[in-house]
Design brief:
Number of domains: 3
CATH superfamily of the largest domain: ATPase, nucleotide binding domain
CATH topology of the largest domain: Nucleotidyltransferase, domain 5
Distance between the termini: 41 Å
Strand content: 15-25%
CATH architecture of the largest domain: 2-Layer Sandwich
CATH class of the largest domain: Alpha Beta
């Protein structure tokens, strides 16, 4: 590992450990996750003679497949002992019960880990969406710390607004509904009419309805029905017959990248309140995957920070979000007022970066190291030509340092990858999600 952080010396990239493991492993193993409507993703690899090492790495790969692709069935061919142990971990009360419970909520069926002799062929989907620019359109981006809305006429932005809000801290669905409606009405007032509404939101959505979303994590189950169709109901406040499309914010990022750079094979990563991911495949469509990169492992350090929601350690949310910046502040020697919101804490570091503070520089350099060694791990699952990174963490010169550091690592440590890191201009970094959402 050529590049190391001065403030996170224990960072241990999954990709480096995995590559070393595959060099010594010699027994073929097949892994597969099955997601919606029989679609699946297959991953072929090898294991060795060390049972603990085998489990350590296969468990991280399966975890990654679940959160990148999704699914309620995991098939393992050629490693019955690993399958048995995984089944225990993903059972009710097991170490990975959060993951299996989450998948059951999304796919509405029991979660299973199945040992088998061999796997059937991969069967993938491709969904075309985005790229619609004609007419008067509203694009709304529901983030965890702020909400953004844009009014777009024939592809030209006539109005954009960003408002601080706290959806993750509010249990009352009315708080969320009022904020969404307020944003939509503001955008609508800037155009002669509204032809369509596109929504980019953290979470998983099927038929424009919320399956699971971190934005509504405080909403109790007995009131969750009020957020399932919250965007549909909010759109009706603007017009009962106005079409609305809701998409995961990461997928919207990928669509935006495809439009902006006239390219396919785009992995979009939005670094904001959390880490959102989305992917535009080689055919210019979506795979129908979850791409919930916030839960995907990137660090093998056994003392890595735990995700407060899932309880797992070393996952993307603590490496590619405003929480990553905040997490690194104590080691960098930057004091933060605990009364500040996460977004306000990030701004403290951004202001220090503006004046060339060395502590702030090391924080952004460290996140660049995280990114440089994690993108090659993502490339095990995605065919990536462009990695489009944006979000509030990428704003300012700190974002430039992240991209510069990660790009250098890709060039020197992973020259075999046909991948380039790109980022939009400053305005698009902050409101690009809502603008791209308008094209849904």
């Amino acid at each position: 590992m050529k590049y190391k952080s001065e403030i996170d010396r224990k960072f241990s990239p999954v990709i480096l450990g995995w590559r070393e493991f595959q060099i010594t492993a010699d027994k073929p193993v097949g892994l597969m996750v099955e997601y919606a409507d029989g679609y699946n993703f297959r991953f072929d690899c090898k294991i060795g003679n060390d049972a603990e090492q085998n489990y350590r790495y296969i468990e991280r790969i399966v975890k990654s497949m679940l959160w990148i692709v999704g699914g309620c069935r995991v098939y393992i061919a050629g490693a019955d002992d690993v399958a048995k142990r995984l089944a225990t971990d993903y059972a009710k009360g097991g170490k990975r019960a959060f993951d299996s419970d989450f998948m059951e909520r999304v796919y509405k069926q029991p979660f299973e880990v199945i040992a088998c002799e061999r796997l059937y062929e991969a069967f993938r989907r491709c969904v075309k969406t985005g790229g619609n620019v004609k007419g008067c359109r509203i694009g709304f981006d529901a983030g965890g710390s702020d909400r953004k809305v844009s009014a777009v006429i024939d592809g030209e932005v006539v109005f954009s607004e960003e408002v601080i809000w706290y959806p993750k801290l509010n249990a009352d669905p009315q708080y969320h509904y009022d904020g969404i409606v307020s944003a939509l009405k503001t955008a609508a007032s800037k155009m002669p009419r509204v032809d369509s509404i596109g929504v980019s939101s953290a979470g998983i959505f099927i038929n424009n309805r919320t399956c699971v979303s971190s934005l509504f994590r405080m909403v109790p189950d007995k009131k969750y029905s009020l957020v399932r169709d919250i965007y549909i109901r909010a759109a009706r406040e603007i017009g009962k017959k106005i079409p609305v499309t809701v998409a995961n914010d990461g997928d919207v990022t990928a669509i935006a990248g495809g439009i902006s750079f006239n390219s396919n094979r785009v992995l979009g990563i939005a670094m904001g309140t959390s880490e959102a991911g989305g992917y535009l495949n080689a055919k210019g469509g979506l795979n129908g995957w979850l791409s919930e990169l916030a839960f995907v492992p990137c660090d093998l350090n056994p003392q890595a920070a735990a995700d407060e929601w899932s309880g797992d350690i070393g996952t993307g949310v603590n490496y590619f979000s405003q929480d990553a910046v905040i997490k690194l502040c104590p080691a960098a020697g930057i004091p933060l007022d605990e009364k500040l919101s996460p977004a306000e804490k990030l701004k403290v570091v951004q202001e220090l970066m503006k004046i060339g503070d060395k502590r702030a520089k090391e924080i952004y350099r460290t996140i660049g190291i995280y990114l440089g060694y994690t993108l090659p791990f993502y490339a095990l699952f995605y065919d990536i030509k462009l990695a489009l990174v944006l979000g509030r963490v990428l704003s300012g010169t700190g974002g430039d340092l992240i991209v510069e550091t990660a790009s250098q690592i890709l060039k020197e440590e992973f020259p075999e990858l046909d991948m380039k890191i790109v980022t939009p201009d400053e305005k698009f970094k902050r409101v690009g999600q809502s603008i791209a959402a308008s094209s849904l």
